[in-house]
């Protein structure tokens, strides 16, 4: 009987030990199961926040890597801003379109030439297009704008007054009239005279051969460090009706914060890249304009003061412009006298006669 009791006690003892060990293992396993999901979730959330923060910081640093261009505020390597800007006269006759290289210009001027045909002058500094054109002739009022950037001036001939002024003003002139086919050449896809082209490399080589100064010396406009609105009237669309075949317009894309450019209501594309041309800033400058000869050549008064409009970030404000000399910079002010600050990016400057009416929405 005693032996039976001892056997029962031994069995019960072993059973309890096994039971308690099993409970301990179950509790420990349960604790691990409850904690693992929590740890994983916290790690994922932390990683996502860290990655997002790093991505945003890297995007900002990439956008601002280097130094701002003095003519566009776009960030670039420091060596780029110490090169000399160059200004290229570009054909805008309907048979010359589309133009090559405009998508890489930092500033583009559009001004009337003979009749109601407009012509472009594109300013380049930080970008180096492999193809630029079609190249056309000079006009005196374009010289006034090119000198604002201390720019190399690229053209094919010009009006008698323009050619005289180029010599008198001692401009760094690179003309197809005095250069070889290694600087200017014609392409067969367009008819003469709307088929003459050049490149950044060709321009730089020509400037070096001529011994032109490579350093720059010019006053710059003001730029915001970050994109800003201007507390103006809403403007999502503007058209400048120079003539029936010359009706440029800009449409605002709210998502991108940019204006897309159109010619006669069709997208204005670059010939080489096929990119739709854009503008961060649009300046419309009203000028006193008159025809001065039987060929329809014009005198456009750019030294002095006048009115205009500044358009950026879906807004428009009236401005006053002032230029004190032919070489001096054109400054732009709001009506209260505050100098405007451009947003970093491409600027299109449309020069129009004082009696022109623009169309806005």
Describe this structure in words.
- This protein is an alpha+beta fold and 361 residues long.
- It has a domain at 233-360: YerB-like (YerB-like fold, 3-Layer(bba) Sandwich).
- It is 25% helix and 28% strand.
- The protein is built from five helices and 22 strands.
- The chain has helices spanning 2-63, 78-81, 140-146, 160-168, 200-209; strands spanning 67-68, 75-76, 86-90, 107-112, 118-124, 152-155, 173-175, 185-186, 196-197, 233-234, 237-239, 248-253, 258-263, 266-267, 278-279, 281-291, 298-301, 304-312, 315-323, 331-334, 347-353, 359-360.
- Strands 3, 4, 5, 6, 7, 10, 16, 17, 18, 19, 20 and 21 form a twelve-stranded mixed beta sheet that branches.
- The longest helix has 62 residues, at 2-63.
- The protein is globular and about 50 Å long.
- Residues 5-57 have low confidence and may be disordered.
